[in-house]
# Entry
Amino acid sequence: MALKFRPQSLFVIPEGELNHSSFMKIALAQLNFFVGDFDGNVSKMLLAVDDAKRQGADLVVFPELATCGYPPRDFLEFDDFIRRSERAVLKMAEAAQGIAIVVGSVSRNPVVEGKDLFNSAYFLEEGNIKHVQHKALLPTYDVFDEYRHFEPAKEFKVVEFQGKKIALSICEDLWNLGNENPLYTVVPLDEMMPQKPDLIVNLSASPFNYEHAKSRIHVLRANVQRYGLPMIYVNQIGSQTDIIFDGGSIVISPDGNIFEEMPYWEECVKTFDLQEVMKGGRNMEQPKDKIALIHDALVLGIRDYFGKLGFKQAILGLSGGIDSAVVAVLAARALGEDNVRALLMPSQFSSDHSVNDARKLAVNLGAQYDIVPIEPIFTKYEETLKPHFLGYPNNVTEENIQARIRGMLLMAMSNKFGNVLLNTTNKSEMAVGYGTLYGDLCGGLSVLADVYKTEVYQLAHFINKDGIVIPENTITKPPSAELRPDQKDSDSLPEYDILDAILYQYIEQRQGPHEIIALGFDEATVRRALRLVNMSEFKRHQAAPVLRVSPKAFGVGRRLPIVGKYLS
# Structure
């Protein structure tokens, strides 16, 4: 949803009324949490508290739901999960000695009517819970489903600390500026302004997509311009299966300039002097190149998926094509080349250059590779099925058999050696169903299924920017599944630059066929592409989790029925 915010300063507090005494130092703890790992999350936060103390901080701020990890989803229905969240808060309170702590966690709703829980920000000081502010705006769109579990806040109170009044808020609470967001009816910060806060502190778990870093800054700056107050915004990093968090915590001065934008993709604890922040006058916003962000997000997504599940080694089918090449490089950068194994499975239809390109890439990466020709296995299948297929011509059946042979070999190697299979299907293919269930759609994690084919080429060029890693021939040759003689993707699909543009309008922009055709696309091509997308929903329901890097990814953020008649 594109939201437009007016930067009017309706609530700017006159300069004479701001409390400038005893400026505090505030540490932002941008950490990678693990859903349900209460002991690990608390231990990590306690180390950050010690680090913040060494930096001279008076207050350290952690992200949204830091004790239990975000998003906990239906773990919130387990009473033991809530009890452990509460114990985690108490452990953090014990550590609030000589330094105050703000931490996100779950809290219980004592009122019978309504949801059982709140999404809360705890202010901890001198061993005690001094203040609790609940989240008011509970998103229920895209990957979010917070109103399923949480009751929205109805009370809004600032908390006083070291002579300052702090307006505590949680993530989405900043996203209804001036009551212009039609999803909500309350503006949490407007409710706090009569109490004359001195600064805004926001605890966030803001998922990454390649557009969100810019829009996030736009929204934060608009809040600062509206209220005339400094903004302290802390975001987590890390990947929770499909959802990736990029960090990039932000400090904004009252003049609207970015005083600091913390690193992306890194855990970091950094302390800021509020007096310096109030002065403003500097802009430290980081560049945000789309392909660089996607590259780093995918590397982090792979690394955390393996690390948090206790896996170390990956395997993938290396075909000589661009998709598997890009996945191999990303996996090597995430896990180390010694932890990536490639299986080359040529058939009678595989070109010599594809095998050579795949082998050359494996050598460039220093990854182990094995060559297992599938023609003898495919021949056995043909012989076995010949009496049953008698009189029927070869078609997609024989192509799918090859893909499923490869899937079986990859899963056999995965089972035998404990390697997790990475799926290499891109978003264009996943959208139109250009893949074989139980064949090339196998895998524990879909690395590129939120990256269109044209973007995969951009990733390949980005990977090669400092030297050839992916062989040039892999990038320049026409894409082909090589399941029949002289096959090219364009035999079955529109050219990818056209297809991807249509898919983007349908999937990300949610445009119907008439709107897309009105943009100048060929009507027959549009209707065929959209029909393929809808017909392939059953495949996506059976696919591996997809690392989310776009504003609208397949998976939990795009929930469509398998059986439906729209566009048919």
Observations:
- Confidence is low (pLDDT under 50) at residues 1-21.
